[in-house]
Each structure stands twice: as C-alpha cells, then as structure tokens.
Automatic annotation (TrEMBL), chain A:
Protein name per UniProt: High-affinity branched-chain amino acid ABC transporter permease LivM
Pfam annotation, one family: BPD_transp_2
Subcellular location(s) of the protein: Cell membrane
Classification via CDD domains: TM_PBP1_LivM_like (cd06581)
GO cellular component: plasma membrane
Gene Ontology MF term list: branched-chain amino acid transmembrane transporter activity
Organism: Aquibium carbonis
Residue ranges constituting the High-affinity branched-chain amino acid transport system permease LivHM N-terminal domain according to the UniProt record: 41-137
Name of encoding gene: livM
Annotated region (Disordered), positions in chain: 1-36
Residue ranges of the TM segments: 45-62, 74-99, 126-146, 153-176, 182-199, 206-230, 236-256, 301-320, 351-370, 382-414, 434-451
Protein's membrane topology: Multi-pass membrane protein
UniProt feature, compositional bias: Polar residues: 7-16
UniProtKB/TrEMBL annotation, chain B:
Entry keywords, A to Z: Amino-acid transport, ATP-binding, Nucleotide-binding, Transport
Keyword hit for ATP-binding: yes
One GO BP: L-amino acid transport
Family to which this protein belongs: Belongs to the ABC transporter superfamily.
Domain of life of the organism encoding this protein: Bacteria
UniProt cross-references to Gene3D superfamilies, sorted A to Z: P-loop containing nucleotide triphosphate hydrolases
SUPFAM superfamilies listed in its UniProt record: P-loop containing nucleoside triphosphate hydrolases (SSF52540)
Domain ABC transporter, residue spans: 8-240
This protein's record includes keyword Transport: yes
Protein's recorded name: ABC transporter ATP-binding protein
Length: 483, 243
C-alpha cells in the first residue's frame, strides 16, 4: 500500500488501474508525481480520443449507401466528432476522479457499499422477509393502486418470478455445487416441450398432471448430461454444458415431425383451478365463486403458481443445504479431492446437483409453456442461459436473496427501459431505449464486478453453529461481557 | 506385535504416473495400535504411497490389504468408508465453510448419534478449534488448519488414520502440539496411525516403527529408536535438518 494513502477496508475492491497507480506512486513523493497531474490526465484523454478518431473514421465518419449509379459516400463528421468528444470527456473524468487520484471515487463508493453491509448485519434477512411479504400481496397491490395497468405489472412480476425460480434452480448447480453450467436453458426447454407435447398427444393431461412429469423428464436429462461430464470441471465443463444446451435447441428446431420445428407448438392448455377454467360464463372460475368475470383472474392465478413453485425451490434448497447432501455439494465446490478423502461419492453428489437443478428448470419450463400457450425453439437460446447465469453470478454465487435482487434489477430493468418515454424527447423521436439494453446490461455487470467482485451478496450463511451455550462467569459479566 | 494380522498391508505395490514409475514394489505393514512412519526425501514417493493406499491413483501391480480385505481396486470413496481416514497433504480443508461445517463433513458417513460425543472429544484434543468453531476454515492459521484437517479425519471414527506431512510449513511449537495429540490418540484410543513425514527426527521419535523410502523403494525399516541411531538416516535426514 502506498505511503500516505488512507487504507480503506475495500482495498481489494479497487479496480486494477487504481491499484497500479497507487503502487507506482509509492516510490516517489506526491508533488513530483506526473501521474496525478492535470497535464498527464489531458494527454491520456487526448490519446484515447485520437484512438477513437482513427477507429471511428471508417465506421462512423464514412458511410456507404447503395445509390442508383453504384455506391455513394456520405460523410458524418458530426457523429465522429461527438464520439471523440464523449470518449475524451469520459476518459478525462475517469482520470481525474478514479485512475489518477490519491482517493479514487470507486474506492469511496465501494467503501460505502460494504459499510452498509456491516452496519446492518441482518439486512439480508429483513430484506428477504419484506420482499416475501410484498410478493404475497403483490397482485392485489397492483390491482388496487394501479387500476388499468395491473395486467402489465402482474405479467412483469410473473416474468421476474420465473427468472427467480430459474436462478434458484441454477444456484444449486453453480452456486452450491460449483459446477459451471452454461446450458441450463436446455432443461427449461425440456420442461416446456415435455408439457406441450404431452398435452398435444394426450387429451387428459393438463398442467398439474404434466408438471411432475416435466420435472422428472428434465431431471432425467440432467442425469444424462451429468454422466459424461462428471470428470470435468471449470472451463471444460462449461464448454460441454454449452454444447448440450445448443444440441437440445438444434434438435428441437430440426425434428420437425415431432416438435414442429421452428413453427413451435401452440394451443397449450391453460392451468385450471381444481378443474375450474378461467373462462367467461357457465362453469368458469368466476361463475363458480359468484364474482364478475375479469381477465385478470387468470394472471393472478398464474402469478401465484409461479410464486409457490419458486418458494418450493427456495425451501428445498435451504433445507438441503443443512443436510448431508447439500453440505457435500458445497464441500465439492471447495475441494473435490478432500471430499473423496472423506468418503463422499463425488459422482452421486454431482449427479444429484445436476438432476435437482434440472428438475426445477423443468418445472419453470412447463410453467413457461402454459403461460405463453405457445413455445418454439427461439425461446431457448444461449442468451437465456447467459441471463440466468448472470442473475446467479451478479447476485452472489450461492446466495438466495442475491438471486432475487439481481432478477428484479435485470429483468425489471429491461422492462423499465420500455417505459422511459421521456428519453425520446431528449434524444429525438427515433430513440428506442430497449435497443440499448445489452449495453446497459454490460455496463451494469462491469460496475457490479468492479465494486462487488463476488456478487451483490457475497457473504455465506453458515449452516451449522455450535449449540452449546457460552457460560460466562460473574467476573466477566462484571467486566461488561455477556450482555 | 508381529504375530497379529496387520491392519494395513502393502505388498509389492507398483504405481505409475503415466509411464513414469513412482513406486517400485513397496512393502509396508501397519499393525493394529501402532504408529508407523514413512520418511524420505522430496519426491521419494511417500505421498504417492499414501494416495495409492487411498486408491487414487490405483496400484498397477501388487496388493493392498486392509483388515485382510483386498482394497487394491476399490474406488476411493469406498476405501474411505471402511474405517480409514486421511488428512491429506496440504491440509485441504474447505476454506469457505466454517470449522463446524468442516467437522460435519468429516462425520457425514457416521451415524448422527455419535456426533455430539465425538465433537466434544475433538474439542478436548484441540481446544483452539472450539474457539474458532464459527469461523471460516480459510481464515484459520496454518497450524489451526492442520488441526482441523486431523480433526475432520477423526470425526469419521477411523480405525486407521493416515497423515500426510502434518508438520508441513508449521512452527516447531505447533508441530510438537500436533504430534502430542497423535501420541495421545494412539495411547488412549488405540488409534492406528500411518504417518508420512519429512520431519524425520520428530516422526521417528513419535513412531513405534519406521520405514525409509528412497526413489520409490523401501531401503530401511526398524523401530523408531533403531532408525534414529542409524548412520545413514542421520546423515541423510537429520544432520542440519533437526528443529
């Protein structure tokens, strides 16, 4: 640590550049330091701006259009100038406030974030309870306070809840067992297609009969995937699971006679409430309970289905963590050789993690199918796997509440972009904020990884404590202990 | 002691890493209630023998008998369920799990009713671990981690404890403490211990019998006191190496 630098508790959270700058500065007196000087910052920013000019010259500055007589060139010097100016300004600000200052801004912000965690040690617990309570009353909250728009909000809540469930399912595999799975969407697809195909071929199968079957089939595929990859770890495992996810999708796409190929499967039945369908008129849900029919009932019902499914996922995970198999998953993540030396069958441990994670993915998949009423391979691309994995990683590997927070932020955040109408008044009528969602996604991820490299919730709750009560002698109490 | 059946018997075991030979026909016997040590220089094959007993890698020739049963081709996790416990080289505790959780992992194959009693015994042997019970394994000092590794192995109620270099990288005082515990376990519980060590002086003083390994061969064996007196042992492993 450089001399004279205040040792912040988050020294390890600082970005690489700041670290390096600090170390280099350690050798020389601050006054003679050219690295913190304004001239240095300007020079650096100018270099960056020049690079943008060179790179952007052909990409931004010159544009070729097809014209009647061949190609015409249009020059867009204004656009290039704006790009150069933005990079120059941003780089200069970064230099002044982050890279070349004795007290980088990121350090203070990182410090503030982790100080918050220390000040409220039970923050996670209370936040979890508050979110749970809100989730229970959520549909009524929206119908009451946002009449007219409740359908949109409940739909969004269903979507977020689906991702929370997927995140929790994947958390078993990635967060607890430490097996990097890039093809989780395959199990989601298996669940969805299981239900869709079963419902298509057998009249009597509804959502509730298909749900356990879909889960079982997905678990079965989890084991199928598990077997060949048992010996792999880390990067190699990630590659194989990635390939597996793609294989499932490509099979679904090309096996036209069975899956309908790119046309997908439509007309998937909606879930019933103990046999009552959510339809207008005689025998429907509303008719049975003697309340006026409203479209929203079905959405509220769907919301509660996914809510309960997600809560089951969470409870099962929390319970298993305290049982030998869950502890073995975590031990496996920590040290596989040590696990074997303790007599743990690593093969079975990995397979249970894969199978269970896949099963929950399958449940979520069949819910997805029934909600949409239509599925096609397009819904199960690698991007879905990446989003689910990002939710788990950003939330903090192994953290259940972290998954909730990052699902709300990521999925809710994308939806929020659609509603930012005022932005088009600033950037012109053609500005479509959703087109920038991947950019914002990326920036958010980079920022979180800079400040919280182990995810939003990086602390791990121990599953066991020594039950013995501490006996404290009278002399110690007199000294102020044991209160 | 030799009239009894050995608890662990390694017979003419050869182990290879690919084409490279690591053990060239090793014979070692460990009788019930004994502390047996295996000493040797770096790369002699001590740890390889330890790992071969555990079945990873498996021996390509020869036989390993545990309690009269051939375990040469048994998978590792099944060997470790037969009453053998190992404190592996480099300790290999679970760093993000607490001390308690580490100990629970050690006890995962034992009936739950033994847990509380075993835990009490462990905390008597290693009072330091009790103080640290809710701390994460990775935050312990080297000596505490070694204690935890041994304690974790003991939680599986073994008949035979395999220790791979428990003194590695530890201060002499801690090494002494750990060796005291091993002696205590052997004396009061009758635990059989097979100890692989580079710290020849302490190991031979502790052990009933010892083997010296050079280049994948056992070159000498005898009681600990005998080996300590041998000129070759002194020259190779003790002079200048004593703590």
């Amino acid at each position: 640590m450089a001399a004279g630098t205040p040792t912040a508790p988050t020294a390890s959270n600082r970005p690489q550049g700041a670290q390096r700058a600090l170390e280099e500065r350690g050798d020389m007196p601050p006054a003679a330091d050219h690295r913190t000087s304004m001239a240095g910052s300007l020079r650096d920013a100018a270099t960056a701006a020049f690079l943008v000019f060179v790179l952007g010259f052909f990409f931004l500055g010159v544009r070729s259009d097809i014209a009647p007589g061949g190609l015409t060139l249009t020059f867009r010097w204004g656009l290039l100038a704006i790009a150069v100016a933005i990079v120059f300004g941003a780089r200069l600000l970064l230099n002044i406030f982050v890279f070349r200052t004795a007290r980088p801004l990121t350090q203070r912000m990182g410090g503030a974030i982790s100080a918050q965690g220390r000040a409220f040690p039970n923050l996670g617990k209370w936040l979890g309870r508050a979110l749970f309570a809100f989730a229970v009353i959520l549909p009524f909250f929206f119908t009451y306070f946002f009449p007219g728009r409740e359908r949109q909000y409940i739909d969004l809540a269903i979507l977020i809840m689906t991702y929370i469930m997927l995140g929790w399912g994947l958390n078993i595999v990635v967060g607890l067992a430490g097996l990097l799975d890039l093809g989780y969407v395959a199990f989601y697809a298996v669940g969805a297609y299981s239900f869709a195909l079963l419902a298509q071929h057998f009249e009597f199968i509804g959502f509730w009969t298909a749900l356990p079957l879909a889960g079982l089939l997905a678990a079965f595929w989890g084991i199928i995937l598990g077997f060949p990859v048992l010996r792999l770890r880390g990067d190699y495992l990630a590659i194989v699971t990635l390939a597996f996810g793609e294989i499932i999708r490509v099979v679904l796409l090309n096996w036209y006679e069975f899956t309908g190929g790119p046309d997908g499967i439509s007309g998937i039945p909606k879930p019933t409430f103990f046999g009552l369908e959510f339809v207008r008129g005689e025998g429907g849900f509303a008719d049975f309970f003697g309340i006026p029919f409203h479209n929203i009932h079905r959405f509220i019902y769907l919301y509660y289905i996914i809510f309960i499914l997600a809560i089951i996922t969470n409870l099962v995970t929390l319970r298993l963590r305290k049982m030998p198999v869950g502890r073995a998953w975590e031990a496996l993540r920590e040290d596989e050789i040590a696990c074997r030396s303790l007599g743990i069958n690593t093969t079975n441990t990995k397979l249970t993690a894969f199978a269970l994670g896949a099963m929950f993915g399958g449940f979520a998949g069949s819910f997805f199918a029934t909600r949409q009423g239509f599925i096609s391979p397009e819904s199960f691309t690698f991007l879905e796997s990446a989003i689910i994995l990002a939710i788990v990683v950003l939330g903090g590997l192994g953290s259940q509440i972290g998954v909730v927070i990052s699902s709300i932020v990521m999925i809710g955040g994308i939806e929020l972009l659609r509603n930012l109408g005022f932005l088009s008044q600033i950037f012109g009528p053609n500005f479509e904020p959703t087109q920038y969602r991947m950019l914002i996604f990326g920036i958010a991820m980079v920022l979180i990884m800079v400040w919280k490299p182990r995810g939003l919730v990086s602390t791990r709750e121990p599953t066991a404590v020594l039950k013995e009560k501490k006996r404290i002698g009278a002399d110690m109490v007199a000294q102020g202990e044991g209160h | 002691m030799n009239e009894r059946q050995p608890l662990l018997s390694v017979r003419k075991v050869e182990t290879y890493y690919g084409k490279i030979v690591a053990l060239r026909g090793v014979d070692v016997d460990v009788y019930p209630g004994e502390i047996v040590t295996l000493i040797g220089a770096n790369g002699a094959g001590k740890s390889t023998l330890m790992m071969t007993i555990c079945g990873s890698p498996q021996a390509r020739a020869g036989q390993i008998l545990y309690d009269g049963e051939d375990i040469t081709a048994t998978p590792t996790h099944e060997i470790m369920r037969k009453g053998i416990a190992q404190s592996p080289e480099g300790r290999r505790i679970f760093p993000r799990m607490t001390v308690m959780e580490n100990l629970q992992m050690g006890a995962s194959l034992v009936a739950a009713e033994h847990f509380d009693g075993d835990l009490k015994r462990i905390f008597e042997l290693f009072p330091r671990l009790k103080e640290r019970s809710s701390q994460r394994g990775g935050t312990l000092s080297g000596g505490e981690q070694q204690m935890l590794a041994i304690a974790r192995a003991l939680m599986s109620r073994p008949k035979l404890l395999l220790l791979d270099e428990p003194s590695l990288g530890l201060a002499p005082l801690i090494v002494k403490q750990i060796f005291e515990v091993i002696k205590e376990l052997n004396r009061t519980d009758g635990l059989t211990v097979f100890l692989v060590e580079q710290n020849a002086f302490h190991a031979l003083k502790l052990a009933h019998r010892g083997y010296v390994m050079v280049n994948g061969n056992i070159t000498m064996s005898g009681t600990g006191a005998e080996l300590l007196k041998r000129e070759e042992v002194r020259a190779a492993y003790l002079e200048g190496g004593r703590h």
